[in-house]
Give the backbone structure.
Amino acid sequence: MGKHYDELIRLSREVSDYSSIGAVLSWDQETYLPPRGARARGRHLGQLSALAHRLATAPEVGAAIRGAEGEKLEGAAAVNLREIRRSYERQTRIPTELVRELTETSVAARQAWKEARAKDEFPIFAPFLEKLVALRRRYAEAIGFDGEPYDALLDGYEQGMTAAEVSRIFDGLRPRLVALAAKIRGARPLRTDFLHRSFPAPGQARLGRRVLELMGFDFQAGRFDVSAHPFCTSFSPDDVRLTVRYDESFFNAAFFGLMHEGGHGLYEQGLPSAHEGTPAGEAVSLGIHESQSRLWENQVGRSRAFWRHFFPFVREEFPDALRDVTEEEMWRAVNEAKPSLIRVEADEVYYNLHIMLRFEIERGLLLGTVRPADTPALWKERMEQYVGVRPDTDADGVLQDIHWSGGMIGYFPTYSLGNLYAAQFLAAARKAIPDLDERIGRGDLRGLLAWLRTNIHAHGMTWRAPELVEKVTGEAPNPDYLVSYLERKYAEVYGI
Amino acid sequence: MGKHYDELIRLSREVSDYSSIGAVLSWDQETYLPPRGARARGRHLGQLSALAHRLATAPEVGAAIRGAEGEKLEGAAAVNLREIRRSYERQTRIPTELVRELTETSVAARQAWKEARAKDEFPIFAPFLEKLVALRRRYAEAIGFDGEPYDALLDGYEQGMTAAEVSRIFDGLRPRLVALAAKIRGARPLRTDFLHRSFPAPGQARLGRRVLELMGFDFQAGRFDVSAHPFCTSFSPDDVRLTVRYDESFFNAAFFGLMHEGGHGLYEQGLPSAHEGTPAGEAVSLGIHESQSRLWENQVGRSRAFWRHFFPFVREEFPDALRDVTEEEMWRAVNEAKPSLIRVEADEVYYNLHIMLRFEIERGLLLGTVRPADTPALWKERMEQYVGVRPDTDADGVLQDIHWSGGMIGYFPTYSLGNLYAAQFLAAARKAIPDLDERIGRGDLRGLLAWLRTNIHAHGMTWRAPELVEKVTGEAPNPDYLVSYLERKYAEVYGI
């Protein structure tokens, strides 16, 4: 392309390589690290991230960017310049002192949060939340924003998205979800007892492998292992690692957990290798990443067609536990919707309601319209209003999530955006593949994966999330797809 | 100590950290890496080793060494300065061009060796061996030596050892080993059929864990996993990884393999944490490392006392395979000695004879008295003379080992030195713990480990191998201990 651009790519790949090396160490930390190994591992990870940060914000990067701006770049090169420049500017605008203060405060806040949650004493965490909000507001101001401080933080997770836009989307979702939830609460409860029978881990592992293979996950370029909290990480498109946690007395946990992480993994495996280590070879955003996991976990994994094909394998693996269960009962059971206090246990109907109240509270915190001290009461009130249950404790309320204690404010909406994009993408895929359900019912998921590869995975960061959604589906992010899908499915599941 | 010394330690620890990070990636490569992940992994490892090399040979290191020389260092600090200076001088004496040429030639030579071995065609490998010998001779000349070129290479693996000294030691071993082997060939063969029955891997894994726990391996600070070629690696004294390969139709492979790697692992876990990342916290040499693995594998693991304690556990795990086997038969069987073509399958009697012929050949190659083209014939001749068998092919002869194809010339003697040190160390331990055999027979190995910790592990690189042996045992490395141990044991094993 040009010598400045080539230099920029060399620098970008070097940073990316050190990040990938750090990802290997983090993966090992969650899967196989012996307890006493944690001390050295922390030092090694700190050293690598300091090195990557130093390289990413080095003056040479700035010089290469300025040089490359005169080189008339096109295609992937233009994407790379745009994204490397954005990231460089974001990172260099934050004073080193503020980064340090945020890191230190987060470490202390994480400890305080753990203690507060264990003792159910919000006041232990309150001063740290206050300090983190103040620091994140300074952070937002350092980066700059057009609308409100929240935008600058959200943009770090979901580029191009704003608080106003999230608000518009959530306003479209909330009343219909609340109404659907109310209807389901009035319906006859489903039979779900058998999901809590005995499912030994080795059988779950075999089924997990089978479903990942069916999805098209390439085991020559990835694997899965056990960890306390499931995740997906990637060291290159040819080395994608998933993790799983087995609950031997609850079928759903590992099975849908693996389909979820597998969805993330398929995205990583589908990114263009030619652009590895540069933005043109990276995922668009957290929301788009989440759309891939939710699409496979929910839109596919909880569909009637999927269970038509897959139920015999599950029953073959667990003949005792499922001795008196039909394919239809299984499909209904994995779709059970009921109010719960905890976000990570929520189903498709309730999940986004959990997110909305978090979004409203954190947006208010940054604007100054919500005081940290008021969040416990506000949380309870909104839970009752949206989800229909009121937590007795703050441990099951405002203290349940780890995010804020690490300074991650502005992150939550990406989960809901993922759900919403997933529904909108699948509606588009259905137009392109009219017999999609019949194919899924035959266990043929190749067409769907090929569509995702071509339309989403292969493009890396070419378009930002809202542009990509519009490009692929013909319209801006629209909550109607998600609500219509849920209304349709749940009418059938509960016969309402 | 002084500001230059402190700076030197900071630099040394930084290099050590990047080496440890590389070790994590290498461990993962051998245990869990999906096949297609190898490409990115190679790039990441190359990048880390280039970084570590650049940092280790940076001018700042030279300046800190010169500054620290004026700071009157004592104890561990003096050891660190001595060893960091030595390593810095060795590394900076080699021209970058030569390092590059060696690396590139090794990559090509490795491929050629694989092909040559698969096709049993030595001429495919010959030109590469020739080139590697020439490069390693230039390497030795760049470093410098008092005696002969071999010394400079051997010193890189076993500091303070020379070809002349190895020769003296081997001359003490050879005739008595050859005589012992001849006697055993004349004795009645042992019963060993049961070692080749069915030993399912899960049972072998449980036994492996049990024997490692008995040895005192700390599973809070280490673990073991499966790999094609067993090894031990360490990321800190608190994170030591062993690997094992299960052969379900041969008991010895995994069991003694794990005791062997466990011996290495105990050494790594016993190094002083306070000096982590500096020579005072590192292993002395390859030979001393090997002495720890051989001591546990052979001196302990193949002793009569050990089987008195351990046989019931093995029979409990494998009641079918060992239904008609006594403790005594088991002990004899695991000590079977017989000539074989392959070094890695050799027993305690024959192993060192395999090493001697390699040492003689590689020493001659460097001196120019042996031509690469002559090595196949020379190998066969010496095998017949020392081991008593003659390979039909070069694949089972001169091409069997991987070492030379990677430029590792001067490495082999460290295996035999390990055997020799192990026997000499155990003789000293026996003096300190007169009831050692009774303790082992009761399954109490703590006293032995404590002795090794105090006398060897805790000292890091304080003394070089020959000094350490003298310090611990009261005399210079002496082959008599090894031969006497073997003569005594084999007289009993074979009733000769």
Summary: The mean pLDDT of chain B is 96.
